[in-house]
Write a structure and sequence with these properties.
Order of helices and strands: HHEEHHHHHHHHHHHHHHHHHHH
Helix content: over 70%
Shape: globular
Radius of gyration: 23 Å
Largest sheet: 2 strands, antiparallel
Distance between the termini: 32 Å
Strand content: under 5%
Structural class: mainly alpha
Number of strands: 2
Strand order of the largest sheet: 1-2
Number of helices: 21
Length: 525
């Protein structure tokens, strides 16, 4: 499988780089925008091929830099699936931004360049066999996304960008220091003075690493990569950045970037467990997980902005994922990986949907969006289903993963942690459901008066049949309904994401063997 294995590892890196190069040369073109969707499909296809090849425990290697095991394959699937939804939605998003005057051709070209670079950095992070390259790749995501967060400009976007850069730079510096300490510990082990940051080599000699050094290193790594994952106490960049970034970028940041940071923690966790007292590792991760859940639950109650609502929900779900990492059994790891995939799909649907709601309603305030289901039935229906998926309702996969996480924690003797998490999840459920119900079912806002004192007619709601027909046939609708259809036409990728979520919640076989193999790599009894 040598040649094919190399192609599987190289293709998901080359495809987005080629798309970024095309955007740099040609600027914003619809063909370039669709090539980003094609590059995302290449990443997903590479993940599928890697999953087939590694589900039996095999490892794909390309030189000394790239490797893929079952855990890598899961992350490639997550990156590819979320990227398809985000880049597909991004085509119509940039068209709307250009039409509304929120960006120009130069800004659109910059967007077309940076999004593929963002994808390439995340792909390299999960393919890297060297933990130093893993750190550098996650640092590269900070540089690229800083420009994307501030894409629309304005005071709030600039403030969010600087906050993101400063806090994440501090976090990534802590992670760098932790990485250096791991290398120092490897130099003073049986590996000799040369040391190593190769994950396979470190894992083979983990029991020989200095426990004192590794204890400090792992604490720094949890703080550092936990910053990128949006965990308490270095979480405060996340609501601002996610609320100000373009909707498809928010989908990528929430659905993938946070998960890539957790992936880094999983790689280090299995080394730390072998080098240290497993109780220390578990306690550290439990504190991070439960405090993140508690903060998210408290902040969700008082939210008035639906994009910030989704951002705080990301903190909640990363808390659940890290709770699974704290448990650390194979069942818990398999459940958290399924949760990462489900959360990525659900959050990409919701953030991309929120971008369309903003384009139609002109506000991100929850109080400014009322009666959406009656006025925008197709868009509101997908948003409502996305909220249901995010809240862990059946038949979506988050229902399955959350049950599995609870069972794994209880089996590991952490029933008290399950009880605390369930209480906090109940608060989250009530908060998100109440805010969502107001947006979907509340009384529509009163018509705005024109300067002459006459009521200004609101944009008429489109019949669902008209919207669906336009989406499926790509047939333009004659004025005056053309603007609403363009805003609603992006619903196709959202429906696709919801369908995949529902299938994964009902049928386990497509991922069962892969998740089991991945769980055995980093899970411990």
């Amino acid at each position: 499988m040598g040649g094919l294995g190399t192609a599987v590892l190289v293709a998901p890196l080359v495809a987005p780089l080629l798309t970024g190069g095309a955007a740099a040369l040609l600027g914003w073109r619809r063909a370039v925008a669709w090539s980003a969707v094609a590059a995302s499909a290449v990443i997903l296809a590479s993940g599928v091929l890697a999953a087939v090849a590694t589900a039996d425990g095999s490892v794909l290697v390309a030189g000394d830099l790239l490797r893929a095991d079952a855990l890598t394959a899961v992350m490639l699937l997550v990156i590819g699936a979320v990227a398809i939804i985000a880049t597909w939605s991004g085509v119509s998003y940039i068209d709307q931004e250009l039409a509304a005057g929120h960006t120009d051709a130069r800004g659109a070209g910059r967007y077309g360049l940076l999004v593929p670079m963002f994808l390439a950095a995340m792909v390299l992070a999960v393919l890297a066999s060297n933990l130093g390259v893993l750190w550098a790749s996650i640092e590269a995501t900070t540089i690229v996304t800083a420009f994307l967060v501030g894409h629309r400009g304005g005071r709030k976007a600039v403030e969010a960008t600087w906050k993101y850069v400063i806090i994440c730079s501090v976090g990534i510096a802590l992670a760098y220091l932790g990485t250096v300490l791991v290398y120092y510990a490897s130099q003073h082990s049986s590996m000799g003075s040369q040391g190593s940051l190769d994950w396979t080599v470190l894992l083979a000699h983990a029991d020989q690493l200095d426990p004192g050094v590794m204890r400090v290193a792992f604490a720094l790594l949890v703080l550092g990569f936990g910053t990128k994952a949006g965990l308490v106490p270095m979480h405060s960049w996340l609501p601002d950045a996610h609320s100000q970034a373009p909707a498809p970028v928010s989908a990528l940041m929430s659905g993938v970037l946070l998960s890539v940071a957790v992936y880094a923690l999983l790689r280090y966790r299995v080394i730390a467990v072998a080098a240290l007292d497993p109780g220390f590792v578990r306690t550290l991760l439990l504190v991070a997980a439960l405090t993140s859940l508690a903060l998210a639950a408290s902040m969700l109650i008082a939210q008035r902005d639906y994009k910030r609502l989704l951002a705080y929900s990301s903190i909640e779900h990363m808390g659940l994922v890290v709770l699974g990492a704290a448990v650390g059994t194979p069942l818990a790891v398999a459940a958290l990986l399924l949760h990462i995939l489900g959360h990525g799909l659900a959050k990409s649907v919701l953030f991309c949907g929120s971008g369309q709601i903003l384009a139609l309603e002109g506000t991100t305030q929850i109080s400014g969006v009322r009666g959406l289901l009656a006025r925008r039935p197709v868009l509101a229906g997908t948003f409502a289903l996305g909220l249901a998926a995010l809240l862990g309702l059946p038949p979506f996969s988050l229902f399955v993963s959350e049950l599995a996480l609870a069972r794994a924690a209880a089996d590991a003797g952490l029933g008290w942690a399950v009880a605390v998490a369930l209480v906090l999840l109940l608060v989250v459920f009530v908060a998100i459901a109440s805010h969502g119900a107001g947006m979907l079912f509340g009384r529509p806002p009163a018509p705005v008066e024109s300067p002459g004192g006459e009521p200004r007619p609101s944009t008429p709601a489109l019949p669902a049949a008209v919207v669906v027909s336009s989406v499926l046939t790509m047939t333009p609708v004659s004025p005056p309904t053309i603007a609403p259809v363009r805003a609603t036409a992006g619903v196709a990728p959202l429906v696709t994401g919801l369908a995949v979520l529902a299938v994964l919640g009902v049928v386990a076989w497509p991922l069962e063997a892969l998740l089991r193999a991945a769980a055995l790599i980093v899970g411990t009894p």
